[in-house]
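seq:
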Amino acid sequence: MTGEESLREREAANYIRTALSGKGLYEAPVPENADMVIEVAFGIEQPRTKMERNSMPIYAQVGGGIRYETVPVTSANGRTSMRTVAVHQPPRSELIGYQDVVVPVTTYEKYIVLNARENRPREEGRPPEELWSVRASSEDESDDLRKYLPVLASASISYIGTDSTNQKTVKVRPGDPDVVFIKKGL
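struct:
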């Protein structure tokens, strides 16, 4: 394991400990005496690329060029005469329509999975009973897992220790109180 992976694991563990503390769950001083064991997984799925149709504006340069004007010019002795001068006009852009363009968009799914099981020995090859499970994920064009770890941990707070059979969509913003709580840590 590289130093960066180890650092990322410690950072994720700290965010998850903070999320668990938000539900009154704390690490047992002696692991053998813990009520439950929480398995943690996090990472980024393989990138997915899909083609999206976008409407792009089309602009054209119009106007501009040189035009000539006759203007009065007064000399130093006070005589006024007419002169023809060139006036430069800058071109301007004008929207002339839209064009549909197909562009590839690559997205990355970042996730955290928490599985809680009873802390007791296996019985006859069966694992201990699962108490609850939470999977939080976010999919967009960013592949920065570190930025999303506190957001994903905060999204899981409300579902820690609850029914693990339903899927819910939760909207979380980086400045939400739960995210600030997670970033602050224990």
